[in-house]
């Protein structure tokens, strides 16, 4: 009969807060009882009789060949080695390990200064608590992976994972999305959280011109293209360090300067300037008018 055989169990892995089914089977049995006990060696069920007063633990099936119990609302402290005993002489036992996965909390990013100023050093920290085993953190800069520095601390039975990213900001960081991604075996898809950087910087200017070879009699349009955050206020035009000499032919509209009916007296260096609270940017264009 049942003399030579041991009960059959399986290790179980569940996510905290869900339920775990622990099954113990024997192939033949002559009315010998099966028993489940917990890692502290307390009896949970002896056959169909409940031994431990814990409302989370219930009977699923008790027969001569199987004892299956369910632990509901599993917590990290339920993890450990459970024992199924077959009460032959001598008693035969088989162990099953219950692994409980701790779910990471949704990540939070700290350290964003709004707005940051060009050349500031910024340290972004992404934190997720409660994972078991420790979650993995990955940083993305506009969807491209960047390397952070990760620290793992155990808090009780679970882990707090922090990853920091330190960098010097420049104007190209303005509007960039930094995403922290948390991966864990308890999650189907990673948890994501994103912060968009705002960077203030001095205006950068360039002059675009409408003619490659300006000739006498033609008209020339110069446009002062500026980027800056905050957006710079009005554009100022000058020629050779002074005011524009001929306001009849030199027309300023917003960021554009148009010179009609070019002649040799228009030769010189044209400069545009624009400012915000961080400073002033400028650009220059050297005009040489060719004869026809």
UniProtKB/TrEMBL annotation:
It holds the Pfam family Ig_3. It comes from the Eukaryota. SUPFAM superfamilies: Immunoglobulin. GO terms for biological process: homophilic cell adhesion via plasma membrane adhesion molecules. GO terms for cellular component: membrane. PROSITE patterns: IG_LIKE, IG_MHC. Residues 7-99, 107-193, 203-288 form the Ig-like domain. It is a single-pass membrane protein. It is found in: Membrane. Keywords: Disulfide bond, Immunoglobulin domain, Membrane, Repeat, Signal, Transmembrane, Transmembrane helix. InterPro entries: CD80_C2-set (IPR013162), Ig-like_dom (IPR007110), Ig-like_dom_sf (IPR036179), Ig-like_fold (IPR013783), Ig/MHC_CS (IPR003006), Ig_C1-set (IPR003597), Ig_sub (IPR003599), Ig_sub2 (IPR003598). This is (spotted green pufferfish) hypothetical protein. It comes from Tetraodon nigroviridis (Spotted green pufferfish).
